[in-house]
Amino acid sequence: MSQEEKRITISVIKADIGSLAGHHITHPDTLAAASKVLAEAKRKGLIIDFYVTHVGDDLELIMTHKKGIDSPDIHGLAWDAFKKAAEVAKELGLYAAGQDLLAEAFSGNVRGLGPGVAEMEIIERPSEPVIIFMADKTEPGAFNLPLFRMFADPFNTAGLVIDPRMHEGFTFEIYDVIEGKAVKLNTPEEVYDVLALIGTPSRYVIKRVYRKSDNLIAAVVSTERLNLIAGKYVGKDDPVMIVRAQHGLPAVGEILEPFAFPHLVAGWMRGSHHGPLMPVPQKYAKCTRFDGPPRVIALGFQVKNGRLIGPADLFDDPAFDETRRLAQQIAEYMRRHGPFMPHRLGPEEMEYTTLPQVLEKLKNRFYEAREYEVKVKHTAMLSGEEAHE
Ligand code: F6R
Ligand code: MG
Ligand code: MG
After folding, report:
1. pTM score > 0.85 for this model?
2. Residue 115: exposed, middle, or buried by beta-carbon count in 10 A (0-12, 13-18, 19+)?
3. 20 to 30 A Cα–Cα from 124, which one of 80, 302, 310, 370?
4. If you measure from the C-alpha of residue 236 to the centroid of ligand 3, how many angstroms do you get, rounded to a whole number?
């Protein structure tokens, strides 16, 4: 088989097109409608294979094909699948039906139209294990910490130290999603610079990771920020990520290991709260408590000649029970803060806010704080004098 024949694109495209019982879970009929569109495309040979699933209220399309990334055909197909699913959602009166489909018409690329996209073109290795991570009630920057651990932290990934193929390190491509700029930084030499950026996950988001020795693509994340795209809040940026595993890349277990720590992410309730990211099996990929806590699933596939063999539901394992228990405790602890930061996000990051209205209402009741202090002192003096008399 030539290199060209082994060239395969994996596209994961997701959208919230409406859900059952509020923002809780997709309806099986919407998944069926999307699957029908993709099955037809597979029959016609546009895609090689597909897998349709959900995380909470997000409908996820996993596709393989030969069209490369950003293909108008593939994006158009995903758009059709979402449109058909949204029609069903509307018929059933599902909540927020059509929410993430921001445009009426498709114009060549779903980027900027609402859906989230993670795509990578690969030369398929003789055995090609990939993991698709999909999360609900959080943002793309939620993958910063786990990606750093997978590809740059030797306390997580033993292979960085002991596998000669990984020993040179990895290159991180980081997007500034506010300015629309990107930078590539190399690890281990620039780890502190990487951390200086990605520690602000609402702004600096790891988009791709490459193996430094040969530039092999190892991971890609959806980085669309729906709220910025639309100029107003229309939904969450619930992210997806593709990671390749093994044979000179982190092992599956090294890729899953960072998720054993349920780190705090933004996006819980109304996109305006921090909470722990809970790794769950597919059957628990639905948000309940306070519309959460934020959840992530990991589906493992082998890609063979573009066919998707699997999935393996990787967090469906008691080995993650303690993580889930810890996440519950953190959820409880965070919830006790009610409307206070840092449970609630900072004002610049909140998806919903009444702050401008509250400030407008109180406008005439604000006075100079210094004047107030003088007044208080004066009153105190008076009462002191009174006390003397
Ligand atoms: C949506 C989400 C939810 C909603 C919340 C309020 O993905 O995370 O927490 O933000 O349920 O929804 P609305 O404003 O539609 O009543
Ligand atoms: Mg929703
Ligand atoms: Mg969602």
Report:
1. yes
2. buried
3. 80
4. 6
Number of Cβ within a 10 Å radius of residue 315 = 23
* Closest residue CA from atom 1 of ligand 1: 23
Query: For the range 277-281, what are the long-range contacts, defined as Cβ-Cβ under 8 Å and sequence gap of 24 or more?
Result: 277/135, 277/138, 277/142, 277/327, 278/323, 278/324, 278/327, 278/328, 278/331, 279/315, 279/320, 279/323, 279/324, 280/315, 280/324, 281/313, 281/315, 281/316, 281/317
33: pLDDT strictly greater than 80: yes
Q: With bands split at pLDDT 50, 70 and 90, how would you rate the model's confidence at 90?
A: very high
**Quick check: is 192 catalytic?**
no
- Per the residue annotation, which of 14, 16, 58, 137 is the catalytic one? 16
d(CA 313, CA 299): 5
Interval 99-115 mean pLDDT: 83
Active site residue 313: no
236 lines ligand 1 (CB under 6 A): yes
Answer whether 146 contacts ligand 1 (Cβ < 6 A): no
pLDDT tens by residue, 206-258: 999 999 999 999 999 998 876 677 666 555 689 999 999 999 999 999 999 99
CA of 349 to the centre of ligand 2 (A): 19
